Amino acid sequence: MTKLEAQREVWGQTLVDLGKQYPELLVLDGDLANSTRAELFENAFPERFLQMGIAEQNMMGVAAGLAGVGFVPWLSSFAVFLTSRTLDQLRMVVAQPKLNVKLGAGYAGIMTSKTGKTHQEVGDVAVMRAMPNMVIIAPADGPELRSAMAAMMRDASPTYLRLTRDATPVIFDEKHRFEIGKVYVVREGTDVTIMSYGPQTTRALKAADILAKEGISSHVVHVPTIKPLDEDAIAAAAEKTGRVLTTEDHNKYGGLGGAVAEVLAQRRPTRMRIHGWQDVFGESGDNDALLEKYGLSSTHIAREARSLLAQ
Amino acid sequence: MARIAPILTPEKLADMKAKARENRRLIVEAINYAKAGHLGGPLSVTDILVALYFDVARVDPKRPYWEDRDRIILSKGHSAIGLYCVLALKGYLPVEETLTFDAIDSRLQGHPDMTKLPGLDASTGSLGQGLSVGLGYALGAKLKGKDFHTWAILGDGEIQEGQIWEAAFVADRYRLDNLTAILDFNQIQQFGWIATKGGETRKMHASGTNPGDKFASFGWHTLECDGHDIEDLVRALRAAKAHKGQPTAIIAHTVKGKGVSYMEHDYNWHAKVMSDADYQAAVKELIS
């Protein structure tokens, strides 16, 4: 029986745990704390929970000012609002001065509780990759998220943390130690390398199971830090099998696929396939129905791997 | 009109007026040297900056990162050269350095960059954002039990940005009486729009009416002053700092291009390169 855990619950609880350890940690909410579970922090530290209302652009500026007096503000909202809505604010007052502000981007990817295309941000990784000074982290599951948030608190970079709303399979145990900028081989194999981040890695592992039954050996590499990217590890993982499939719950343009292609094209040209959203906006629906319709399920990943091997 | 008692000694007032005049000369000199940059706004905001840096604000040029310093944010970042010249006169940087404005490798970027020049409390330039950063400083001061004050200087065209009113809303919610917005209300923006007024269709360069009412409706304490009268400015700034329970917005009535007669009230001098004759005429006025 696969254990499931929702990242938003881990997010809320870990804010509380870190809040006990770090008095400088503040949480700024854009009136969504009951959705994102940042409300757990308000219950624990009401005076350090700052309700900024439905005014995300202002919230980003406030974070910059708070960072300027030594606080570490963690912003809690949906991915779409912390990227598309506040991009200019993030650029000028946080990323350019490289201030220690953490963006907790909940409801990232296609699974956004039936809210549909208005609340699905299809290009957040692309946008953040093109933003100098930003670190991008997308943990696979609860244990990795806990470790990643602790690592973020030890680091002073402005950071975009990409979170999935609903419960997803747990693949790491509590001994797993996330380090910013490292990749993790979660399954050794010889025929094809599959790279992914966030809970898409759990679907990549399932795809590896499907492929194993057909005699195909997958080398699955989890890349929870998309920027800065561990280029040596990416090149080494490509070297291992000579075929690289990237898969992500994000547009096929500008995400991990693009990042890996940039590295490999310059360091070790490798036959590749880039798998993700097919450059479309989404819609509302059940998670499984969305993954199926938009081609992000394990069976789709396995199909992509077969196509790559047939090339 | 009732006579108001002076609050500055005649010597201090004369010195501050001289600083303002010198600041305007430095602005014109730097812009002429760079052959680029803004003139109207920096000349308009000069007296506000002099009143802050040479009287009201708690700052120390020897300690630009002093944690108890007042925070000063030039949200209308395109007036950067006005701020750089005041910082130079105050001792944050050598006065000669103002001639590096806009040049490659200069600490004096076209718009303020807090990563380059000590003494800048925010990076600004994309309009509408400085009040939010000031709100963050003011909230942070309350949370840390610090008594410094935060001043955000806004352009009147700039307050067309919606984010200003997000910040106004939230500052009221937290009753941030340690935050003051100073509006450089010169009533001319870069280009403006075509409008019909009194049956006549013409170009309107005015940035909007009654900003004080707008801030008041958001729950702010508001004051009005003559933005070129140093005493009146100091009086309003001190009153804003002393006011409890609400943030204050000071509507400082100013003249775009103030101090150079042919630039005053003319939107064309928002940012325009001077001819040699223009430059000589401006300097002549500013040193007389």
3D architecture notes:
The complex is a heterodimer of chains A (311) and B (288). By secondary structure, chain A is α/β, with parallel strands linked by helices. Chain A has two domains: 4-169, Thiamin diphosphate (ThDP)-binding fold, Pyr/PP domains (Rossmann fold), CATH 3.40.50; 184-310, Rossmann fold (3-Layer(aba) Sandwich), CATH 3.40.50. Helices cover 42% and strands 21% of the residues of chain A. Chain A has 13 helices and 14 strands. Chain A has a seven-stranded mixed sheet, sandwiched between helices. Chain A has a five-stranded mixed sheet with strand order 9-11-10-13-14, sandwiched between helices. In chain A, strands 1-8 form a two-stranded antiparallel sheet. In chain A, helix 4 packs parallel to helix 6 (87-95). The radius of gyration of chain A is 19 Å and the shape is globular. The two termini of chain A are 36 Å apart. The mean pLDDT of chain A is 97. Chain B is α/β, with parallel strands linked by helices and 288 residues long. Chain B has a single domain (11-287), classed as Rossmann fold, CATH 3.40.50. Chain B is built from eight helices and seven strands. In chain B, the strands form two sheets. A five-stranded parallel sheet of chain B has the order 1-2-3-7-6, with helices on both faces. Chain B has a two-stranded antiparallel sheet with strand order 4-5. In chain B, helix 1 packs antiparallel against helix 8 (276-287). The two termini of chain B are 30 Å apart. Classes of the chains: A alpha/beta (311), B alpha/beta (288).
